[in-house]
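[Target chain]
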Amino acid sequence: MPEALKFNTAPGNCCFKFHTREIPLQRVSNITKTHSACQNQAFIVQTIKGRQICYSGTSQWALDVYNQRHNTEGSSQQH
């Protein structure tokens, strides 16, 4: 099969346990959503130390962080 027609149906990283405590924003290096094929929709927060923490897809804190990070990408903010 040609390379262009191959696709990956694996969902990648999925979350099964969720963290409920907020972490300081300065410790968040990245936040992503889990794949839509995962049983539980969630956010995966990567810390500056490389730790990955799962938050429920209904976590208002995680949603706010996700929207903040993805709406400010490409802006002129300095860290």
Summary: The two ends are 45 Å apart (CA to CA).
